[in-house]
Amino acid sequence: MALTSWVSASILFISFLVIAASLRVFESGHNSQIKRVAFFCSIYLFLVVIYQLANSFHWPHIDVISGNIVYLMGWLTLIELFSIVLFKLIIPRLGYHPPSIISDIFFGVAIIVLLVMTLSNFGVDATSIAATSAVVTGILAIGLQATLGNIIGGVALQLDRSIRLGDWIQLENGMQGRVQEIRWRHTVIETRDWDTLIVPNSSLLAASIIILGKRVGEPLQHRMWVHFNVDFRTNPSHVIEVVEEALQAAPAILNVATHPKANCVCLDFSGDNRESYAHYAIRYWLTEIKDDDPTNSLIRKRLYAALQRANIPLAIPAAQLFIDNDDSQRRAQKEQKNILKRIDALNQIDFLSGLNEDERTILAHGLQPVLYSKGENIMVQNDTANWLYILTEGSAEVWLASGGETSKVADIISPTFVGEMGLMTGAPRTATIVATSDVYSYRLHRDEFQKIILQRPAIIKKISEILAAREVETNTIKNRLNAAAKNQKIEQTSVHMLTKISSFFGLD
User: Fold this and answer.
1) DSSP string of 293-357?
2) Domain that holds residue 187
């Protein structure tokens, strides 16, 4: 008989462990409940051992007590397992996701019923227990009003689900964070600063809470503002066009929604004695709320680069202006220094080696400093080509779209230049170049270069030979041409290149 009891107990214990392990596989996110089941199983096995020893040594009182506790622990384990299976596996697969407090209430009620039944086995009157419990409950309710209020608040929050796990909320004091847990007494909120807020549930119920980025039927996205000022004499339409073109250009800015599109608005004009500027704002919709600062930074970098390329300076309040007392001689020295810097940049371009000093100086005056922030396109494949770019600082990548696929074909490290074929022949861009860091550069428009060509047309022959050699060198690497074939190809390409350049600049 004793052996049979031991076998039965062992089989039941092993069954508990198998079920718990299976649940851990299917529901790995509910480790606390699995641990609780394992704890109940361990206590159950220990009590079974005590019970069998009591039977063996004829300890009647211990026999009865341990037997009832074994009974209790067995049912506790079964109730916990049933709760996990019902609320974590079955009901979610039916399309319902009840709040966790429902399973807690179910488990609590089951425990109370089980305790009453167990106490009845010991001869305790359930009626007296209920009467005593009512008195104790009344005393506790008076002494623990605040705690009970928080508990009721926790029940209300989970039942009406006005605030859910994962929601980004803003409290009345302005603090923001993501809801991590809604417990019986308090709600746990994690902020962007890696801080954890413990907010009493009663406070959440009594306060006006803003749930950020949440609208029925719409994806999660929160509208953000980036403000800036520009000289009021600059046409607002031009400013808005420049900024919106930069914001909406590919590649997309991290965590900025494509719909609605990021846009720019003119908010106000200021023209008092101290300040004279137009006030603008960029509005965009943030898709990952915790990354507001990094995304704002990317927005500002692209804004600054776009305004710089368009020669639109950011306004400085009049009170902060620094007066430049340089005389005309010092200003001339500064200008000459800038020209020498630009001439040095032109010297990096091999196909311009045939230009004399005066011609380089003319081109230097036509160079425009431009800035591209990391991630921006310097040029786009198939776009009309009017500019030569001289990269003085930074790096970029060359991407080629072909056959429905886009792949990286080369890295660019400054100092270097790109876009020479477009400048000389007007051919569309053959690839897309993306800045992989902030890129400082100069750009030269074809109209500026045309001034040199028209003054000295003979120079295009030298240029065509250099460009032809560069093109053939690239093809040689691709096609593995021998020396004779390479020279022949250079000659043919040079003639073809000369014809295209002459036609482009109207020198036929």
Assistant:
1) HHHHHHHHHHHHHHHHHTT-PBP--GGGPPP----HHHHHHHHHHHHHHHHHHHTT-GGGTT--H
2) 162-212
